[in-house]
Amino acid sequence: MEFMKGIIEKEIAGIQEIGEAKEGALAKTEGMIHSIRRMGEISFVILRRRDGLLQTVYEEGKGDLDIRGLKEGDAVQVLGVVRKEERAPHGAELRLEKVRILSEPSEPLPLPVDKWKLSSSLEARLDMRPISLRNVRERARFKIQEGIVKGFREFLYGQGFTEIHTPKIGAKSAEGGANIFKLAYFHKPAVLAQSPQLYKQIMVGVFDRVFETGPVFRAEKHNTKRHLNEYVSLDLEMGYIDGFEDIMGMETALLQHILKTLETEYRAELDILKVTLPSADQIPAVRFDEAKKLVSEKYGRPIRAPFDLEPEEEQLIGKYFKEEYGADFVFVTHYPSKKRPFYAMDDESDRRYTLSFDLLLNGMEITTGGQRIHDYKKLLEKIYDRGMTEEGLETYLDAFKYGMPPHGGLGIGLERLTMNLLGEDNVREASLFPRDMNRLKP
């Protein structure tokens, strides 16, 4: 009988260890063959590992090694001599002495993943996602996305938030409307969650500050470059706030931390994609009605949608604050009550507007947030004013019936934020396996 006591150690070197090893040292490593460049008596076999590309070199006639049977896509274990080489990735390479094939593909790769930039169409890359993601640039996007989530979590843990995990199948939508995916749940009607909103508000009454990263589902019939029907939402909710400005301040500091995390820990991926990150040192805030007026006057665009921002208006607001203040981000506050859900707190000085906001980055909305109604009677009043009933909201309302602190929160679309930071023009580029109106696979 065997007993597991922990990680089974293997004498496998990472790229950094190989780069730091002494000239002439022996090193063993593993990876997949990314490319093979045969140049007469010398061949370069590039390995793709989780930590990057490693150059290995085969010299014909040295030892009994024969690489003629190797091909792209092979998973291998290699042993070689470390040699310093400035032209190699990470400044070092391995002179091959032994190669052991761990597995090999049954067919040639359908995409040239070893190319610096895949020339295939987006649709082709999405159809062959398991392969296209092996391209260095393609996968760099998702390392950066990892950094966004890492920064999000790290910062909020440091601010005393508790991470929660809420259901994604429910009996009723948090925000109402027709954009809901319906399903049968053991012969009962159910819906996929549009957001964790009701649950994270409930949990403010338990932990004061909570956050979640998880999928949300929107049955919106949009076939645009900025919409997905399933995406990852970075949500937070915090209690004992003095106003919705506390939420905007928290998000500003959060973004500063995320950007710093990317700059310091994901520099290699940023360089691969030639990304220059925006600045969140200070973010201007402008009222919704004032923002519409400013861009209408400066750019001569008539105001057509009085209760919402059209995509073109968002772009012009971003352009205005970039030109006038050098700002990449801008908070648009006090959205009309008609366009906000029932739990949004109205502005007591003008109840046509709410104490809520959107955050725009480069003229695209990436965050929606604001202060919530925490008074039970006022919450019921707004529910009734909207012609809604308490049906399906009983558990949610119980939290307020027995007391809740002043609170608010926000949700950030992870794919949209990633897309925007990377300068992509289609949100599908920032989703591992996107789901839209026409795509249910891979």
UniProtKB/TrEMBL annotation:
<feature type="site" description="Important for tRNA non-discrimination">
    <location>
        <position position="89"/>
    </location>
</feature>
<keyword id="KW-0648">Protein biosynthesis</keyword>
<keyword id="KW-0963">Cytoplasm</keyword>
<feature type="binding site">
    <location>
        <position position="372"/>
    </location>
    <ligand>
        <name>L-aspartate</name>
    </ligand>
</feature>
<dbReference type="Pfam" id="PF01336">
    <property type="entry name" value="tRNA_anti-codon"/>
</dbReference>
<dbReference type="GO" id="GO:0003723">
    <property type="term" value="F:RNA binding"/>
</dbReference>
<dbReference type="GO" id="GO:0016740">
    <property type="term" value="F:transferase activity"/>
</dbReference>
<keyword id="KW-0547">Nucleotide-binding</keyword>
<dbReference type="GO" id="GO:0050560">
    <property type="term" value="F:aspartate-tRNA(Asn) ligase activity"/>
</dbReference>
<feature type="binding site">
    <location>
        <position position="218"/>
    </location>
    <ligand>
        <name>L-aspartate</name>
    </ligand>
</feature>
<keyword id="KW-0030">Aminoacyl-tRNA synthetase</keyword>
<dbReference type="GO" id="GO:0006422">
    <property type="term" value="P:aspartyl-tRNA aminoacylation"/>
</dbReference>
<dbReference type="InterPro" id="IPR004365">
    <property type="entry name" value="NA-bd_OB_tRNA"/>
</dbReference>
<feature type="binding site">
    <location>
        <position position="365"/>
    </location>
    <ligand>
        <name>ATP</name>
    </ligand>
</feature>
<feature type="binding site">
    <location>
        <begin position="218"/>
        <end position="220"/>
    </location>
    <ligand>
        <name>ATP</name>
    </ligand>
</feature>
<dbReference type="GO" id="GO:0005524">
    <property type="term" value="F:ATP binding"/>
</dbReference>
<keyword id="KW-0067">ATP-binding</keyword>
<comment type="similarity">
    <text>Belongs to the class-II aminoacyl-tRNA synthetase family. Type 2 subfamily.</text>
</comment>
<dbReference type="GO" id="GO:0005829">
    <property type="term" value="C:cytosol"/>
</dbReference>
<comment type="function">
    <text>Aspartyl-tRNA synthetase with relaxed tRNA specificity since it is able to aspartylate not only its cognate tRNA(Asp) but also tRNA(Asn). Reaction proceeds in two steps: L-aspartate is first activated by ATP to form Asp-AMP and then transferred to the acceptor end of tRNA(Asp/Asn).</text>
</comment>
<dbReference type="InterPro" id="IPR045864">
    <property type="entry name" value="aa-tRNA-synth_II/BPL/LPL"/>
</dbReference>
<dbReference type="GO" id="GO:0004815">
    <property type="term" value="F:aspartate-tRNA ligase activity"/>
</dbReference>
<feature type="domain" description="Aminoacyl-transfer RNA synthetases class-II family profile">
    <location>
        <begin position="142"/>
        <end position="442"/>
    </location>
</feature>
<dbReference type="InterPro" id="IPR004364">
    <property type="entry name" value="Aa-tRNA-synt_II"/>
</dbReference>
<feature type="binding site">
    <location>
        <position position="175"/>
    </location>
    <ligand>
        <name>L-aspartate</name>
    </ligand>
</feature>
<dbReference type="InterPro" id="IPR012340">
    <property type="entry name" value="NA-bd_OB-fold"/>
</dbReference>
<dbReference type="Pfam" id="PF00152">
    <property type="entry name" value="tRNA-synt_2"/>
</dbReference>
<dbReference type="InterPro" id="IPR004523">
    <property type="entry name" value="Asp-tRNA_synthase_2"/>
</dbReference>
<dbReference type="GO" id="GO:0017101">
    <property type="term" value="C:aminoacyl-tRNA synthetase multienzyme complex"/>
</dbReference>
<keyword id="KW-0436">Ligase</keyword>
<comment type="subunit">
    <text>Homodimer.</text>
</comment>
<feature type="region of interest" description="Aspartate">
    <location>
        <begin position="197"/>
        <end position="200"/>
    </location>
</feature>
<feature type="binding site">
    <location>
        <begin position="226"/>
        <end position="228"/>
    </location>
    <ligand>
        <name>ATP</name>
    </ligand>
</feature>
<feature type="binding site">
    <location>
        <position position="368"/>
    </location>
    <ligand>
        <name>L-aspartate</name>
    </ligand>
</feature>
<dbReference type="InterPro" id="IPR006195">
    <property type="entry name" value="aa-tRNA-synth_II"/>
</dbReference>
<feature type="binding site">
    <location>
        <begin position="413"/>
        <end position="416"/>
    </location>
    <ligand>
        <name>ATP</name>
    </ligand>
</feature>
<dbReference type="InterPro" id="IPR002312">
    <property type="entry name" value="Asp/Asn-tRNA-synth_IIb"/>
</dbReference>
<protein>
    <recommendedName>
        <fullName>Aspartate--tRNA(Asp/Asn) ligase</fullName>
        <ecNumber>6.1.1.23</ecNumber>
    </recommendedName>
</protein>
<dbReference type="GO" id="GO:0140096">
    <property type="term" value="F:catalytic activity, acting on a protein"/>
</dbReference>
